[in-house]
Amino acid sequence: MALATQDPELHTLMVRERERQRDGVELIPSENYTSPAVLEAMGSILTNKYSEGYPGRRYYGGNEVVDAVERLAQERAKVLFGVPHANVQPYSGSPANLAVYFATCQAGDVIMGQNLPDGGHLTHGWKVSATGTFYKSVPYHVRPDGYIDFDEVWRLAREHRPRLIWCGATAYVREFPFARFAEVTDEVGAYFAADIAHIAGLIAGGVHPSPTPHAHIITTTTHKTLRGPRGAMIMVTERGLAKDPELADKIDRAIFPGLQGGPHDHTTAAIAVALGEAMKPEFGAYAAQIVANARALGQALMERGFTLVTGGTDNHMLLVDLTPDGIGRGVFLQEALDAVGITVNKNTIPGEPSSAFYPSGIRLGTPAATTRGMREPEMVHLAGWMAQVREEIRGFQLPDDREARNRVLREFRAGIVGSQRLKAIREEVRALCRRFPVPGVG
Ligand SMILES: Cc1ncc(COP(=O)(O)O)c(C=O)c1O
After folding, report:
1. Do the Cβ atoms of 120 and 194 come closer than 8 Å?
2. Which is it for the CA torsion 437, 438, 440, 442, positive or negative?
């Protein structure tokens, strides 16, 4: 209420975003809807506090309550992921990953991670990221069939003797082979960091194997499948402490005072709430339904002639290869789906024949749709609409020449706006959304 009267301009934007979230189907795999309890903790008075340091060791007074909040989040993380140490202060996933480098490497050390166009994350050593600038990045790739090229991982690790190896990705649809990475890192003496940002909720819900018995360090965002606020955690495993008894201290010091100042206590509180939710049996059912939905969506898409990287999925995510589809570029399907209220993102595919900005695939995920209660029948509907949208835009090709490309994109966008067929699908999507209210949004 305060916002509506005090700042109508901002309030109007919030209303628009609320409508967008309510009236469209969110299929971006890194997005989700938090519970009203998480939202309440996030939008709370805890944002008023400064608490540099760690519980019991703060640089500011008045932290007795904040200490208890942070300890609660730490304890829940430790129980949920079976680790002896958890740092819940990273502002987000990228700074969490940077802290891992800062704790384990010197500038110039060799590190390995999954190549970005092969599904890895920027912070796993991509050239434009700080992690690819300050460290010597030797990326590994996926094979043409979409699976991690383990022969290459072994070869590169033996040749370059990295200090740190990442396992984890932002666009990978198969189970992560944590045990195999442990073999490699053990042999070459590297730290093994598992970045479970995407799959943390699946691990917590028991539908993806945990890296805890294998990795030394685990990083995760808290806002994807884990369904918490935007934030992150770094955990150190028993194996990590066995390799380096000071690893937990090194991680803590890398976060504060190494990279950050005061923690965001309102976020810490909301992380505690989300972790509490993830400990409940219902969360396991939600996680299982995410995977069931992804499989159902994948199956229905393949029945409609779409090509999936690796031919399916083990997790919450699907990668659609559009090269055999006569569309060629993800941008067309992404924008046309946006017009009908289905949100996806364009993405590179293994051996990407185009560019990272105009890649040849789209990435889909089921966490958000699952949170609002959609199940297999709705996935089949979504696949049907996606096939109809594809028919509507078939024939558009993106020229390499810049001017010609801009002309084609202009014509394409005008075509989308004018399409009666897309308008009709938009109404059908809206009707589906009305049956599945979004928690905290309506
Ligand atoms: C695997 C992985 N790690 C780290 C991150 C970074 O998280 P953030 O966007 O919160 O910095 C992401 C986000 O997409 C991710 O997918």
Report:
1. no
2. negative
Ligand 1 atom closest to the CA of 30, numbered from 1 = 14
Mutate which of 91, 114, 167, 221 to test ligand 1's pocket (most atoms within 8 Å of Cβ)? 221
pTM of the complete model: 0.97
Write the CB contacts of 430 (distance below 8 Å, at least 6 apart in sequence).
23, 341
Question: Which pLDDT belongs to residue 6?
Answer: 97
Nearest of 371, 370, 350 to residue 361 by alpha carbon: 350
CB atoms within 10 A of CB 376: 14
The full set of domains in the chain, from first to last, is: 39-278 (3.40.640.10), 290-434 (3.90.1150.10)
- pLDDT score for 327: 66
* Average of per-residue pLDDT values in the chain: 96
Query: Ligand 1 centroid to 161 CA: how many Å?
Result: 26
- Smallest CA separation from ligand 1 atom 5, residue: 93
303-346: pLDDT as tens digits: 999 999 999 999 999 999 998 876 668 899 999 999 999 999 99
The neighbour count for residue 200, using CB atoms within 10 Å, is 28
Report residues whose beta carbon is within 6 angstroms of any ligand 1 atom.
30, 92-94, 97, 121, 123, 168-170, 195, 197-198, 221
Between CA 345 and CA 258 the distance in angstroms is 34
233 CA from centroid of ligand 1 (Å): 12
Q: Which amino acid is at 50?
A: Y
Residue 21's SS3 state is helix
Say how many Å lie between the CA of residue 429 and the centre of ligand 1: 29
324 Cβ partners below 8 Å, 6+ apart? Answer: 307
Q: Which two tokens stand for residue 135?
A: 């460290």
pLDDT tens-digit map of 224-273: 999 999 999 999 999 999 999 999 999 999 999 999 999 999 999 999 99
Protein residue closest via CA to atom 9 of ligand 1? 93
Q: Which positions are annotated as active-site residues?
A: 50, 52, 195, 221, 224, 230
Distance from the alpha carbon of residue 18 to the mean position of ligand 1, in angstroms: 24
